[in-house]
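Hi R.,

Here's the chain you asked about this morning:
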Amino acid sequence: MSYELPYTENAEGKFAVPCQIKLAQDCVQLGEFCESKADARHWVEEECWIFSGEGYLCERCHEQVMRNIAKLSTKKMN
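And the predicted structure, written out as tokens:
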């Protein structure tokens, strides 16, 4: 099964990859707009966004997810 990544296209016909979960308060929401979908995907990979299997998480949202997991682990230990 092939999964098509979501992309956002602007009025100039450029593409950006959106953050999949937009969880962090300081989430960047969208990657940089690029000439092609391949370039947009390359940009998020170069910026170390995390591929979830269905989309990409920006670094800030990934950090928030990790903090939430750490909080859950701490609660379970108490």
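The radius of gyration is 15 Å.

Let me know if you need anything else.
M.
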